[in-house]
Structure formats: C-alpha cells, structure tokens
Amino acid sequence: MQVAVGQACGKAILCGEHAVVYGRPAIGVPLTNIYAEAQVREGTGGVAIVAEDLDQAWMLEELKPDHPLAAIVRSTLRALNEETAANFLLTLHSTIPIARGLGSGTAISTAIVRALACFYGANLSPAQVSALVFETEKLYHGNPSGVDNAIIAYEQPIYFVKAQPSLRLKVAR
C-alpha cells in the first residue's frame, strides 16, 4: 500500500507580526522542533480526512468549498492536474499549538500539499507550495500578508514585505 508523508514546521515572527499586513517589514523564522504531518494512503470510497489531534473526521465531498482543509486538498489536486481525486485517506497530526501564532493552520496546509504531491509523484518547489497555501490562508485570516506561508514553505528565516519578493536571511552555521 502506497503511503506518502508531508511535514511542515511551525514559525515565529520576531518583529512586525501585525504591521506586516499593512506593508511594513517583518522578520520570521521557522521553528523546526514543532511540526505538522500529513499522511496520504490509498483508501476506498472517496477522500477521507482524519484530524487525529482534534478527534474529527470528514469526507471531502461533504465539506463546503471554503472549508480550509477541503480548499487546500482541492486546490492541490487541481495544481497536480488530478481533478478526479483517487480514493485516499488523509491523516493529519500536529505538535504545533493551535491559535498561538505559531503557524499551525499554515503548517497543516503545507504538510497536506507536500503529502499529496508525494502521493501523486510530483515535485513542487517551495514557491509553488507557498502559493497554494497562501490561497488557503485567505480562508483562515481574510487578508493575510503571506509571511506565514513563506516562512513555512521555504523553511528559512525571512525578511518579508507584503507584495514584494521575500529576502531570505543568511543563517550562520
């Protein structure tokens, strides 16, 4: 049985967290010791989504188009030219605390994109992953800056200004 796994780290904004939405700069870093994981395995009877940490499960066809999990699955399938989803089980797990500003929703979306890409044998760049996740960020936040998905998709410290190319910071090792 084919199993594909995608992971994504959390993030922290060091400065500019709220001002970044209004075009001011922000600096953010990935938090690699906390993560979200998505596993995709072959299934039967459609697409099932299980959020283990929330003790919830859904069938994709039952979710409204603006449900963030449904939106990221559907947009990723479109990006992979897989309009008709295979039967699969998508299982989600995260060690990132929810609603604490650490990027839990963004990391789950990123992990889903990576797992689906792996499942379908595709290789998406960090820019492609970030762009897909940004569309889902709009459902979570209305008017996001794009800093969360950039930090998590690239997994690097970033100096970020909304609507400008991100400058990745050099990290001394």
What does this protein structure show overall?
By secondary structure, this protein is of the alpha+beta class. A hairpin with a 4-residue loop joins β3 (47-51) and β4. The chain has a single domain, classed as Ribosomal Protein S5, domain 2, CATH 3.30.230.10. Strands 1, 2, 3, 4, 5, 6 and 7 form a seven-stranded mixed beta sheet that branches. It contains four helices and seven strands, in the order ββββαβαααββ. The protein has helices at 68-79, 104-119, 126-141, 147-154; strands spanning 3-15, 26-42, 47-51, 56-59, 88-94, 158-160, 167-168.
Write the layout of secondary structure elements.
Blueprint: E1 3-15, E2 26-42, E3 47-51, E4 56-59, H1 68-79, E5 88-94, H2 104-119, H3 126-141, H4 147-154, E6 158-160, E7 167-168
Parallel strand pairs: 3-5
Antiparallel strand pairs: 1-2, 2-5, 2-6, 3-4, 6-7
- Oligomeric form: single chain
Gross morphology is globular
Name the poorly predicted regions.
none
Q: How many individual β-strands? A: 7
* Ends distance: 40 Å
Number of domains: 1
Provide the CATH architecture: 2-Layer Sandwich
Number of separate helices: 4
Cα Rg: 16 Å
Question: What is the average of the pLDDT values?
Answer: 90
Largest sheet: 7 strands, mixed
- What is the string of SSEs from the N terminus onward? EEEEHEHHHEE
CATH fold-level label: Ribosomal Protein S5, domain 2
Class per helix and strand makeup = alpha+beta
CATH class (first level) name: Alpha Beta
